Amino acid sequence: MSGRVNMRPTNKNALLKVVILGDGGVGKSCLMNRFVSNHFDEHSFHTIGVEFLNKDIEIDNESYTLQIWDTAGQERFKTLRTPFYRGSDICMLTYAIDDKSSFRNMNMWKNEFLYYADIKENSSFPFIVVGNKSDVSIEEREVSQLELETWCNENGIASCIETSAKNASNVQEAFKMAVQHWLRAESRADRTECTYSDTVDLSKKQSDVRNSCCAGATDD
Ligand SMILES: Nc1nc2c(ncn2[C@@H]2O[C@H](COP(=O)(O)OP(=O)(O)OP(=O)(O)O)[C@@H](O)[C@H]2O)c(=O)[nH]1
């Protein structure tokens, strides 16, 4: 008899580290607080360094714990925030719809993340782009939805959404979308690993299987 078995357990990483990046004042802390506690602070203080909160989310009957890292957007806190990028599963690049310069800075944020998180293969990393403060008036808006979509296309990012931490519009959806994006990236990675390493050929003798990279997974 001959066959191939995928040894990777499903939902192997139920704890997902989500890092929120973007210029100071775009609403990162407010987004996190709206998502975690359904609360909005009109007079939110600048974050110093990083803060994190956990929140469970259910998608397709699977439960995930999001560990959400809110970082300080001001340049002077760079050395305090960058050590926390490593080990991230999802990166939320955030700008404010009424602040064009925060939109222009997304390149800088993306590059800073890739560098300090030490991501080699950036094309498959689950970035999601969030345009916050969608409650502002048309007159105050400085970034159109088309500009957002164009930037994402140019940067190979498939997930983007406009939110308002103030009126709660799309905040739950943004985090859900982020996890769904992560799931798609994971399943692509699983398929690749299935092909190259994460499989056991049952036609092999048991001694050969023990020496393969996945053999230990059956005992753990
Ligand atoms: N109109 C509007 N204001 C918002 C929204 N989200 C946040 N704000 C306001 O924007 C300001 C900055 O919000 P923060 O959440 O502290 O911004 P931040 O990105 O965490 O800033 P740093 O900690 O400096 O990086 C606060 O006065 C908030 O009340 C929103 O969706 N709409």
What this model shows, in words?
The chain is α/β, with parallel strands linked by helices and 220 residues long. The protein is 32% helix and 23% strand. The protein is globular and about 45 Å long. The two termini are 26 Å apart. Bound molecules: guanosine-5'-triphosphate. The site of guanosine-5'-triphosphate has 24 residues, from helix 1. It is found in: Cell membrane; Cytoplasmic vesicle, Phagosome membrane. It catalyses: GTP + H2O = GDP + phosphate + H(+). One of its GO terms (biological process) is protein transport.
Kindly list the characteristics that best describe this protein:
220 residues, alpha/beta, Rossmann fold, six-stranded mixed sheet, two-stranded antiparallel ribbon, 7 helices, 8 strands, binds guanosine-5'-triphosphate
Write the layout of secondary structure elements.
Blueprint: E1 4-6, E2 15-22, H1 28-37, E3 50-59, E4 62-71, H2 78-81, E5 90-96, H3 100-104, H4 106-116, E6 127-132, H5 145-154, E7 159-162, H6 171-196, E8 199-201, H7 206-210
Parallel strand pairs: 2-4, 2-5, 5-6, 6-7
Antiparallel strand pairs: 1-8, 3-4
This protein binds guanosine-5'-triphosphate.
- CATH top level is Alpha Beta
**Which range best describes the helical content: under 10%, 10-25%, 25-40%, 40-55%, 55-70% or over 70%?**
25-40%
The CATH topology name reads: Rossmann fold
How can the largest sheet be summarized?
Answer: 6 strands, mixed
Q: How many strand segments?
A: 8
- Over all CA atoms, what is the radius of gyration? 20 Å
Strand content is 15-25%
Strand order of the largest sheet: 3-4-2-5-6-7
Total separate domains: 1
Ligand inventory = guanosine-5'-triphosphate
CATH superfamily: P-loop containing nucleotide triphosphate hydrolases
Count of helical stretches:
7
* CATH architecture descriptor name: 3-Layer(aba) Sandwich
Low-pLDDT runs of 5+ residues are: 1-9, 195-220
**What is the CA-CA span between the terminal residues?**
26 Å
**Could you say which overall geometry the principal axes of the C-alpha atoms support?**
globular
N to C succession of SSEs? EEHEEHEHHEHEHEH
Task: Tell me, rounded to a whole number, the average pLDDT.
Answer: 83
Q: Which class of secondary structure composition applies to the elements?
A: alpha/beta
